[in-house]
Design brief:
Layout: E1 4-10, H1 22-29, E2 35-41, H2 47-58, E3 62-67, H3 69-79, E4 85-90, H4 96-101, H5 107-116, E5 119-127, E6 130-132, E7 135-139, H6 140-150, H7 156-166, E8 173-179, E9 182-188, E10 190-194, E11 198-200, E12 203-204, E13 216-221, H8 229-237, E14 247-252, E15 254-258, E16 264-267, E17 270-273, E18 277-290
Parallel strand pairs: 1-2, 1-3, 3-4, 4-18
Antiparallel strand pairs: 5-6, 5-18, 7-10, 7-16, 8-9, 8-15, 10-13, 11-12, 13-14, 15-18, 16-17
Helix pairs in contact: 1-5, 2-3
Amino acid sequence: MLKQKVVFIINPISGVFKKGNIAGLIDNYLDKSKFDYTVVYTERPGHATEICEGLIKSGVDIVVAVGGDGSINEIAKGLEGTNVKLGVIPAGSGNGLAHHLGIPVFYKKAIDVLNRNKAIKIDTASINNELFVSIAGIGFDGLVASKFAKSKRRGFLAYLKIVTEEYPKYKPKKYKIEVNGKTIKTRALFITFANSDRFGYFASVAPSAKMDDGLLDVIIAKKPFLVEIPLIAHLLYWRKIEKSKRIEVIKASELIVKSKKKRWVNIDGEPLKLSKKLYIKIHPHSLNIIVP
């Protein structure tokens, strides 16, 4: 049987755990009767996308992201629309996409998933031509993403510290949303464009989101009072956030969001400042990904 060519792209600075032993675990647990593999390390932002472009020309079969949602995003940019399969070894801070797809966060178990080599096609999406795989959003989560990117600390506690510091002083912003033939004017804490259900850290912002239905779940969140936050947190982690009166959910394949100022946008956990007019659309069945 002809072996498949696999390349592991490791982001050495993602997440909170050291990755020095991952190469050894890959060598120990990857089924080398099925795969020939190499390991490469990213050196700068955007490097993983550049690597993928070269790998596609060389005839690679599988590219494995060893990192978080931002690393997956970079690799997906290089693989979208091709027949090359994306594998994931979760090694980031939040690992939202992996949690949604049920990919284990334990390295050995994640490698076992690769060995079984079961792939499905999922949707991706874009916001002003910037690809995202899992989640994008504007408003408070965009601000938090920008602060978290600048923080020297990683992990949930670092993320939570930023949220608790910024939330009391954050004022909801005005947005105009054009979706499904309607125009909605609203003041929101954040607007999330969810392909998967997860922010990361097991927080399910869009419990009904599916990654193969050709639709995004658009979550419009109003700012809760401080006394409501424990209930909101409970609903978020028990996949019932849609029951909150502060949440409106719209399913759509494309939409436009306008604001008065350029604001931080969260794209798979990474912050970008885009234009005042955002065009968001789904790309149906555009990425092959290995799942349990």
